[in-house]
UniProtKB/TrEMBL annotation, chain A:
PANTHER family: GLUTATHIONE IMPORT ATP-BINDING PROTEIN GSIA (PTHR43776:SF15), TRANSPORT ATP-BINDING PROTEIN (PTHR43776). This is Glutathione import ATP-binding protein GsiA. Its EC number is 7.4.2.10. Belongs to the ABC transporter superfamily. Glutathione importer (TC 3.A.1.5.11) family. It is an enzyme of class 7 (translocase). Gene3D superfamilies: P-loop containing nucleotide triphosphate hydrolases (3.40.50.300). Part of the ABC transporter complex GsiABCD involved in glutathione import. Responsible for energy coupling to the transport system. It holds the Pfam family ABC_tran. Keywords: ATP-binding, Cell inner membrane, Cell membrane, Hydrolase, Membrane, Nucleotide-binding, Repeat, Translocase, Transport. It catalyses: glutathione(out) + ATP + H2O = glutathione(in) + ADP + phosphate + H(+). It is found in: Cell inner membrane. Its main location: membrane. One of its GO terms (cellular component) is plasma membrane.
Automatic annotation (TrEMBL), chain B:
This is Peptide/nickel transport system ATP-binding protein. It comes from Loktanella salsilacus. The lineage of its organism: Bacteria, Pseudomonadati, Pseudomonadota, Alphaproteobacteria, Rhodobacterales. Keywords: ATP-binding, Cell membrane, Membrane, Nucleotide-binding, Transport. Pfam families: ABC_tran (PF00005), oligo_HPY (PF08352). GO terms for molecular function: ATP binding; ATP hydrolysis activity.
Automatic annotation (TrEMBL), chain C:
This is Peptide/nickel transport system permease protein. The lineage of its organism: Bacteria, Pseudomonadati, Pseudomonadota, Alphaproteobacteria, Rhodobacterales. It is found in: Cell membrane. The chain crosses the membrane at residues 35-56, 99-127, 139-172, 218-241, 262-285. It comes from Loktanella salsilacus. GO terms for cellular component: plasma membrane. Residues 97-286 form the ABC transmembrane type-1 domain. It holds the Pfam family BPD_transp_1. It comes from the Bacteria. Keywords: Cell membrane, Membrane, Transmembrane, Transmembrane helix, Transport. It is a multi-pass membrane protein. InterPro entries: BP-dependent_transpt_permease, MetI-like, MetI-like_sf, OppC_N.
Length: 347, 323, 297
């Protein structure tokens, strides 16, 4: 079985800027949703993603973590054009979306796997048809599209002879998620966004799919954006980690370094909320009090100050800026900003 | 110490469009004041075990065999009034989704008060006082104000706490917890786990805690029963399970948790998927996925081999090591 | 670069049951539902008789006999008796089925086509298009369907075509509403997003991904409307707004036999029985279809 039996869908976007140019650059990316409680209620705005900057280098895996409402899924949907951009830029391999690159072209380079393996497959289509759909709407003839689908089924570990004609409800959760991965790959993307793609799977099946993702990354030269709430999984798969809180990025850094030492108090809380795995050293103190606040009316200043154990007066008034600690490690916290007026640092 | 719950050879079969042998001979005992985690993946029968304890399975399509004794009483024979008095004061249940337990049209305080009035015959003012006390005990901030809140006015973590308050209002001797922290955010999950641990010690109740997450079991359980395909494959204290897993499935689960896995390394994944249980297992149900399966494993179901008090493994490899 | 499927990345999972298509699954579930099967059989028999009535050797439904008026059930030569003009009841009921079923089914089919299109547009496009379509629908909902049908028929004048038109108008709003809500819920599903992400246009998405998943529920709902439609059309005939005598139609027959209720109640009740049985069968069948089409079980 050779990977050189190339898949001849619409050719993937050719590399432009070389390996040094990030595959994705997001600048001040913003997404606000208007919401209304009732007809007469005043319009409010959910600040789902509020001015975030990040890059994803070619071939790397960027892990994105954060609690519900932190904007990680919205960020993913922004990158693939499923929600409208309120402000900011997305730059794909040096080309700016809507300026140098159409949304249609961007979607050939970026694909996504959703969390709910059942809801993301059309119950009336066989899995072969589902995978062939993307190439077909991009002009690949029916027979060829089906050949692509069968080849991909083989690559994702589902024997085409047995599975091609099956319907989603005839598959297990793990198999369905493999199909979703195959469907995304049929577009020959360079960036694959995995939005909690393994979270709903049983642990033993999750491990199989993670192995598959590793194989596919190598074979298809993929770049991953891996969104998950499970820090063990994120650590295993990611090169770099991006931590989000209420629509903002609070910390970005190399995964392994961040795993051992966290600069932002929120990142530290997230990591200490991981179960200890040692019955003799159980967690004794909850890492944080309360739930994450509502992104409709985010707290002023540093959005984390309402739950932060280290918050001082400056945190509620001044929005922290991103400080570079080491090469590739950035944190948005007054604690690390000598100019912020956070007393401990000033002293 | 005497067992509060004694489950003996419990079998549950669902009929319908497809027959599913959900439980195939589960035996488990829970001591007074003990926290036992049922650990397993979807379809392993852990929730079914809980539901049969509460008689929550659909009667028409379910065939239950075996025995469940609660403090000497046969739970499966309870009916009507007895069952109503059993649920609540004796055994209470909390769920992954609080909307299963909380009524959306009543305020939290009212729901708790009504429950204690019905079960303990308290007067309205006493019941209201109990409701307030319960909200304090589950550490809901500004509990006086929260009494009049409706479930939809609370955040996810608060709703979970309110559900716990409702379940514990009548001081049950056994709490059944069906993945109560699974849908919560990481930081909130840990808050709720610590709260449950404290309340369990304060009230001295027994807990059966169903989870698929071995990390959660570590945080909460004294003892663990690992379930697979409607059977218990291994039991032991949490330390024994974590540090000295004997059943190949338990070992696989621990590896799949990725705790401390090295980036880029190939995971030792358990291949395949659990059986569909359309037939009751006649051989070791894990054998088709087991890396060390032998001919004998495919021939007959392995016995549950006792390895000391509260420790047992359903694997023939264990029998040989004894011989 | 070679890629070998290692055992860990291959999903060697349960050999599931042989592939069954969606409709094959529906049929398999329906087959185990005796109530639906009986209802379907009755309806098919009625439709068969209605279509082939002239060739089945029934008496002439228009020829009466002054001496054989209002004969009771079981009269030799007239198994179900005769009506007030001495016409054979069995023949009239069978022939009446032609018009009644036609009047019951045609408006629903027309409303199904129009309502589904409107609902699909409203549900898929959303925004102000949705508001416009749905608010207009709401206006129609302000009137009870019977009154609305009577009002429109009254305005258009009596006659078969006019009652078809009025009934169609009556049934467009409910079907639109159901179609809209089903479409809106399907549209939110991830597979529609995935299709958008693969660059498919809206028309393709609706045709390939949405339509197949919304038609079923709308169809089931429309089936249940057929019985309502039959009853209303019978009502229109009863009021003299629909079919005119001497055409046999169940509602009209009920009307003309009304005076005979004291003389021969059983015969007078027969058209009502037919309406009752047919609508009951339609309702039970649509219930059966609804549960048979539920994939997640």
């Amino acid at each position: 079985m050779s990977a050189n039996k190339t898949i001849t869908t619409a050719p993937s976007l050719a590399d432009i800027g070389g390996p040094r140019q990030p595959l994705i650059t997001a600048k001040d990316l913003t997404c606000h949703f208007p919401v209304r409680a009732g007809i007469l209620a005043p319009k409010k705005v959910v600040r789902a993603v509020d001015g975030i900057d990040f890059t994803i280098a070619k071939g790397e895996t960027l892990g994105v973590v954060g609690e519900s409402g932190c904007g990680k899924s919205t960020t993913a949907r922004l990158l693939i054009g499923l929600v409208p951009i309120t402000g900011g830029k997305i730059i794909y391999d040096g080309q700016e979306l809507n300026a140098d690159l159409s949304l249609r072209d961007l979607r050939r380079g970026v694909q996504m796997v959703f969390q709910d393996s059942f809801a993301s497959l059309n119950p009336r289509m066989t899995i072969e048809e589902t995978i062939a759909f993307g190439p077909k709407v991009n002009g690949v003839p029916q027979a060829e599209a089906l050949a692509i689908a069968r080849d991909l089924l083989d690559r994702i570990g589902l024997d085409p002879a047995r599975f091609a004609g099956r319907y989603p409800h005839e598959l297990s959760g793990g198999q369905r998620q493999r199909v979703n991965i195959g469907r995304a790959l049929a577009m020959r993307p360079r960036l694959l966004i995995l939005d909690e793609a393994v979270s709903a799977l049983d642990k033993s099946v999750e491990a199989q799919v993670l192995n598959l993702l590793e194989d596919l990354r190598r074979d298809f030269d993929l770049t991953y954006m891996f969104i998950s709430h499970d820090l063990n999984v994120v650590r295993f798969i990611s090169d770099r980690l991006m931590v989000m809180y209420l629509g903002e990025v609070v910390e970005v850094g190399p995964a392994e370094a961040l795993y051992h030492k966290q600069a932002h108090p929120y990142t530290a809380a997230l990591f200490s909320a991981m179960p200890s795995m040692d019955p003799d050293a159980r967690t004794q103190v909850p890492p944080l009090a309360g739930d994450p606040p509502n992104p409709i009316d985010p707290p002023s200043g540093c959005r984390f100050h309402t739950r932060c154990p280290l918050a001082k007066s400056v945190c509620s008034s001044l929005k922290p800026r991103a400080i570079t600690l080491n090469e590739g490690h950035q944190v948005a916290c007054h604690l690390h900003d000598p100019a912020s007026g956070y007393e401990e640092v000033a002293a | 110490m005497s067992a509060l719950v004694e489950i003996e050879d419990l079998t549950v079969r669902f009929s319908g469009e497809r027959t599913v042998h959900a439980l195939n001979g589960v035996s488990l005992s829970v001591e007074k004041g003990e926290v036992v985690a049922l650990l397993g993946e979807s379809g392993s029968g852990k929730s079914v075990t809980l539901k049969s304890l509460m008689q929550l399975l659909p009667g028409k399509r379910t065939k239950i065999g075996g025995k469940i004794a609660f403090d000497g009483r046969d739970v499966l024979k309870l009916k009507g009034r007895e069952l109503a008095n059993f649920r609540g004061p004796e055994v209470a249940m909390i769920f992954q989704d609080p909307s299963l337990a909380l009524d959306p049209v009543y305020a939290i305080g009212t729901q708790i008060a009504e429950t204690v009035m019905r079960h303990e015959g308290l007067s309205r003012p006493d019941a209201n006082a109990r409701a307030l006390d319960m909200l304090k005990r589950v550490r809901i901030p500004s509990p006086e104000r929260r009494l009049s809140n409706y479930p939809h006015e609370m955040s996810g973590g608060m709703r979970q706490r309110a559900m716990i308050a409702l379940a514990l209002a009548c001081g049950p001797r056994l709490l059944l917890a069906d993945e109560p922290t699974t849908a919560l955010d990481a930081t909130v999950q840990m808050q709720v786990l610590l709260l449950l641990r404290e309340l369990q010690q304060e009230m001295g109740m027994s807990v059966i805690f169903v989870t698929h997450d071995i990390g959660v079991a570590v945080e909460i359980a004294d003892r663990v029963a690992v379930m697979y395909a409607g059977t218990i494959v291994e039991t032991g204290t949490i330390a024994e399970i974590i540090k000295d897993p004997r059943h190949p499935y338990t070992k696989g689960l621990l590896a799949a948790n990725l705790h401390g896995a090295v980036k880029g390394a190939r995971l030792d994944a358990i291949p395949g998927a659990p059986p569909t249980l359309e037939e009751p297992p006649t051989s070791c149900p894990f054998a088709p996925r087991c890396p060390v399966a032998m001919a004998a494993c495919h021939a007959a179901r392995p016995p549950l081999i006792s390895k000391g008090p509260g420790r047992a493994v359903a694997c023939i490899l264990e029998a040989e090591s004894v011989l | 670069m070679t890629y070998t499927a290692t055992s860990t990345s291959t999903a060697l999972e349960v050999p599931a049951a042989p592939t069954v298509g969606y409709w094959a699954g529906v049929w398999r579930r329906l087959r185990r539902d005796p109530v639906s099967l009986i209802c379907a059989a009755i309806l098919l028999a009625l439709i068969f008789c209605a279509i082939f009535a002239p060739w089945l050797g029934f008496a002439d439904p228009y020829t009466g006999s002054m001496i054989a008026r209002l004969k009771p059930i079981g009269t030799p030569g007239h198994i179900l008796g005769t009506d007030e003009l001495g016409r054979d009841m069995l023949a009239r009921l069978i022939y009446g089925g032609r018009l009644t079923l036609f009047l019951g089914i045609t408006p629903v089919v027309a409303a199904f086509v129009i309502g589904t299109s409107l609902g699909l547009i409203a549900g898929y496009v959303g925004g102000w298009v949705n508001s416009m379509i749905m608010r207009v629908t709401d206006i129609f909902f302000a009137f009870p369907s019977v009154l609305l049908a009577i009002a429109i028929s009254g305005a258009l004048g009596a006659g078969v075509v006019n009652s078809l038109v009025s009934l169609t108008i009556v049934f467009i709003p409910p079907i639109t509403r159901v179609a809209e809500s089903v479409t809106a819920s399907v549209r939110k599903l991830d597979y529609v997003d995935a299709a958008r992400a693969s660059g498919a246009g809206n028309f393709t998405i609706v045709r390939v991904q949405v339509l197949g998943n919304v038609l079923g529920p709308i169809f089931v709902y429309a089936t249940s409307l057929t019985s309502v439609c039959m009853i209303i059309s019978a009502g229109l005939s009863f009021l003299g707004l629909g079919v005119k005598p001497p055409e046999p139609e169940w509602g009209l027959m009920l009307n003309t036999l009304r005076t005979a209720i004291y003389i021969n109640p059983w015969v007078a009740a027969l058209p009502g029985m037919m309406i009752f049985i047919t609508s009951l069968c339609l309702n039970l069948l649509s219930d059966g279809l609804r549960s048979a089409m539920n994939v997640r079980q």
